[in-house]
Amino acid sequence: MPRFIEIKICASPSSIHEQQTIKDIGNHGQWYCQHCDKLRHAKKKIYLLEVPSVLILQLKRFNNDLRSFSKIDTLIEYDLDDLDLNTYVVPSRQDKSIRYKLTAVSNHWGRFIDGGHFATYAKLPTTQDWYKYNDDRVGKMDKSIHVNNYSAYTLVYQQEKKDLIIDTAV
Questions:
Q1: Are 142 and 148 in contact (CB under 8 A)?
Q2: How far apart are CA 33 and CA 39, in angstroms?
Q3: Rounded to two decimals, what is the model's pTM?
Q4: Total count of domains within the chain
């Protein structure tokens, strides 16, 4: 049975680093412990215990401000062939040979969530060619469609294992 986990991954490297830093929790690092009935110093850091074989990332593209769901048109740079999640995995379970390849991108064009148009870019596994699926039209696309893509809404990655080359020369 599939399990869904919400992971907040920000666009900039500095934001990702900020999420991975150990932070105090509670008021001034104090957290109430129900077991000992006292305030204790506490810290938090987010880690994954394992990574999925298929990774689906939904990008936050809409603001919800009580009056509307306005579109966020920020450029998101995303990996095509070498997404590495080891930064988010518990150190004892990291596997440097696991990488993800992008297999599909759902795009949204329009200003609001309840309107606009969706189309998908997907890679054919047998040829590695990219195609655009747009209603009843399908066309072959160049991989450069991913450069400066302000419309990406959902990213789908497939896990792969890479052979590690270890240099044994001293």
A1: no
A2: 6
A3: 0.71
A4: 2
